[in-house]
Amino acid sequence: MTLHDTVDALMPPPAGQGIAISVRGLSRIYEVPGRHDARVVALDGVSAELPAGSFTAVVGASGSGKSTLLHTMAGLDEPTSGRVSLLGTEITSLTSAKRAQFRSRNVGFVFQDYNLIASMTAAENVSMPSRLARRPLPEGQALTALEAVGLADRAGLKPHQLSGGERQRVAIARVMASQPRIVFADEPTGALDLTSGQVVLEWLSHLAQRGTTVVMVTHDVEAAARADAVVVMDRGRLATWSDCRDAARIAELVHRARIY
Ligand SMILES: Nc1ncnc2c1ncn2[C@@H]1O[C@H](COP(=O)(O)OP(=O)(O)OP(=O)(O)O)[C@@H](O)[C@H]1O
To answer: Under DSSP, is residue 45 helix (H, G, I), strand (E, B) or coil?
Structure first.
């Protein structure tokens, strides 16, 4: 049994065709504290549709709105206007409690800083989201997920006893074990060396091939080149969509978006 066979056993059956994420006219305006005349338009009327099973990279200059888009799409932040539908559910019209419940059942996250709970072992971290969603993992599934990312022998260790690459693999195992339909990744390779970063990208790519919809914010054009689609953001808007898999060309698209 190969590692990918192991992860296939963990994943839900491939999703059917269709749109997994739909955003319409999404805007997010931040008021600047103490200044009624100043505001930051972080998102400026963004609309997009992402098919089920797609792997999309969001790139753009610092401050162009990438993280705001990801957080708003994921329902971690509320837009000032516009709507977000995930898997056919309009999450922008849910109460925050219902939105949290929807997230815990359907959405996984991979963050640059891993977001692991320091006092828990790798295996406990992997089990945590499912326990919070009141759908505890079947016996042994946390270990199977850790095995899939090559960390079976680290299951009993706490995050501070793991390297950065290993911590991010625990975060990937956590996502695989809870079998979300959508994964949002914010700079997942940002703190990793090249080899560990490649491993993480390979897993994200594999999750997408198995039908999970993956959206990844990144500064790393090499990482973006691993996605099926690249969205270039500029000043809160989607400047360009591309299916380019060439890092130098993606860097050029980011650069050009800033000029025009
Ligand atoms: N909580 C906040 N309050 C006020 N302004 C904010 C807040 N969060 C983000 N912004 C502003 O919104 C704009 C977009 O920020 P965002 O973090 O989405 O950009 P980004 O493209 O992810 O940047 P980076 O690549 O540097 O992480 C920036 O001008 C930022 O200063």
So the answer is: strand
Question: Is residue 186 situated within a structural domain?
Answer: yes
Number of compact structural domains in the chain:
1
Query: Is there a domain that residue 238 lies in?
Result: yes
In the reported structure, the alpha carbon of residue 80 is separated from the centroid of ligand 1 by a whole-number distance in angstroms of 15
Helix ranges restricted to H, the chain: 3-10, 66-73, 96-106, 122-132, 141-148, 164-178, 194-209, 221-224, 247-259
With respect to residue 185, please indicate whether it lies within any of the assigned structural domains. yes
What DSSP character marks residue 202?
Answer: H
Q: Which residues are within 8 A (CB) of 185 and not within 5 positions of it... i.e. 6 or more apart?
A: 109, 110, 111, 204, 214, 215, 216, 217
pTM to 2 decimals?
0.90
| Dist. CA 30 → ligand 1 center (Å) | 9
CB within 8 A of 111, min separation 6: which ones? 171, 185, 186, 187, 188
Name all residues whose Cβ lies below 6 A of ligand 1.
Answer: 30, 40, 42, 60, 62-68
CATH code (residue 58): 3.40.50.300
Atom of ligand 1 nearest to the CA of 71: 18
Residue 69 maps to a domain: yes
Domain that holds residue 145: 52-78+105-259
Query: Mean pLDDT, consecutive 10-residue segments, the chain of 260 residues?
Result: 54 66 96 82 96 96 96 95 97 95 92 90 93 85 90 95 92 89 93 86 92 96 95 95 94 87
